[in-house]
Amino acid sequence: MGSKQQTSISRVLGILSEWDKGTKQLRKKILEQFIIQNQNKTGPELEEEFVQAASLFLTRLTAWLRLTYMTGVCLNELLQAVAIFLSASSGHKFMAEFMEVGGTLTLLEIIGLKQAKETDKTEALKCLTCIANAGRKYKELICESYGIRAVAECLAKSKSEETQDACRNLLLMLAQGNPKFQNQV
């Protein structure tokens, strides 16, 4: 193992260790750095960045998301970081991992929370759009989770034009190429 690879492994282990021991402020800082450094990366690039351990970081993100989304702690940053994984081309593995732990339901719950900020709802809708973009199977999973109703309610209650646009776009996407649920949308 080369010294460069050893350095990369040490860096990733350091990030994961900091996350595990970190305060809310430290985790927010880690999230902000991750967002800046990893925008528009592909799945393989994320794996390279995390020395084939990107899933370990995604697991930590989804666990913290599920534990804290009702309080709103770093919610926007968490959702942006999750969106990086969900939107990564050739990153279907990440999407599958996120969905296996109930990520879709969590996102649908976030857009229905009265106390959630509009910006957080918009980020959750962006994550749902990434999932819907992955194809018919994923659109059906969102719809089977009462996603059409959740998105329509979010659209009706939203005061933000950006959130309303995200809702409309997601509903249009859920209707296209999804014959099983097209009439419901």
UniProtKB/TrEMBL annotation:
Signal peptide: none
Pfam families, per database record: DUF5578
Matches recorded under InterPro entries: ARM-like, ARM-type_fold, DUF5578
Protein name, as recorded: Armadillo repeat-containing domain-containing protein
The organism's taxonomic lineage, starting at the top: Eukaryota, Metazoa, Spiralia, Lophotrochozoa, Mollusca
